[in-house]
Amino acid sequence: MTEALNPIEWKNDALVLLDQTKLPNDIVYEEFTTVESVWDAIVTMKVRGAPAIGVAAAYGVYLAVRNAETDLVEVVQKSAAYLATSRPTAVNLFWALDRMTAVKAPDATYKEALLAEAKAIHKEDEEINRNIGENLLTLLADGMGILTHCNAGALATSKYGTATAPMYLAKEKGWDFKVYADETRPRLQGSTLTALELSRAGIDVTVITDNMAAMVMSQGKVQAVIVGCDRVAANGDTANKIGTLGVSILAKHYNIPFYVAAPTPTIDLNTPTGTQIPIEERHKSEVIEGFGKLTAPADVNVYNPAFDVTPHEHITAIVTEKGIVRAPFSENLEKLFR
Ligand code: MRU
After folding, report:
1. C-alpha to C-alpha distance for 301 and 299, rounded to whole angstroms
2. Is the beta carbon of 96 within 6 A of some atom in ligand 1?
3. How far is the CA of 155 from the centre of ligand 1 (A)?
4. 69 exposed, middle or buried (CB, 10 Å; 0-12, 13-18, 19+)?
5. For labelling alongside 4, which of 160, 252, 265, 311 has CA 20 to 30 A away?
6. Best CA proximity match to 209, nearest among 181, 229, 241
């Protein structure tokens, strides 16, 4: 077991991020002291994963205002609007920015209150994930094979991760279980991040390429699928990393429970169904140059949506820090917020 990597930290009056684009080869921490550099870190995915993006953006707002002398509220609003242009799909970004713009305090203590709010968002995320893990654990059993897609791990959050939280807890309990990590084309979060953090924790993890999931399921090696999410619509339709939809179809085919680990800040009751979730499209280079050399003709057309939407009918349960939500999702998700 090797020490856990901390993707996001507030240290010496600066935001310190682990540069996830360099993993698993190099462990490089970088300091961020301007809102522009935080925006860039989100866009280039030095920091990524819905909860971590929200936390980083919250600190970004504080960084924008901390040296300002006048019009502090305006600076906060403008920087929040600017950060909101970084990535469109994960609703945690907008949720965290809304919390920052809602901070009210007298001028003399406003900056302090903003930093305190960013730290609170950061800390709450850690507590949320542990509770998600405990709830998910009640759906799992010793000896299982679990398949996950992308990285909804500790590297995507403040601690524990969401989809990985029950894995860390199961390890603590001494369970014997096996994790299959989809490689997750095109950015390879499954192999570069999930495999890295789970193996550092001493968890039995096996990387498979995305097109191997069907074979592995057909061989009876998977008893549960657990994925994270970037936005859950009011009816339960769930946006997550591209490829999640395919995994959900396979899980349905092989009668394997499909669980979504969802912190309540990722649930967006203002988005009625998955159709209204904005899906980020990223640069073609991720698809054809991701391995350090061209893997297709440079001028070929490429379609690179970063997320897809799993219809709620494919989801066995949405597991939140407040409890396990099952169909009918519209009704039961709404109850969580009452
Ligand atoms: O593009 P990414 O790496 O930010 O996408 C990450 C995911 O899709 C995760 O599954 C999701 O954000 C949940 S992280 C707890």
Report:
1. 7
2. no
3. 10
4. exposed
5. 265
6. 181
0.80 exceeded by the pTM? Answer: yes
| Token pair of 224 as six digits | 């549960």
- What is the secondary structure of 184-253 as a DSSP string? -TTTTHIIIIIHHHHHHTT--EEEE-GGGHHHHHHTT--SEEEE--SEEETTS-EEEETTHHHHHHHHHH
Tens digit of pLDDT at every position of the chain (338 positions): 788 899 999 999 999 999 999 999 999 999 999 999 999 999 999 999 999 999 999 999 999 999 999 999 999 999 999 999 999 999 999 999 999 999 999 999 999 999 999 999 999 999 999 999 999 999 999 999 999 999 999 999 988 999 999 999 999 999 999 999 999 999 999 999 999 999 999 999 999 999 999 999 999 999 999 999 999 999 999 999 999 999 999 999 999 999 999 999 999 999 999 999 999 999 999 999 999 999 999 999 999 999 999 999 999 999 999 999 999 999 999 999 99
CA of 272 relative to ligand 1 center, distance in Å: 21
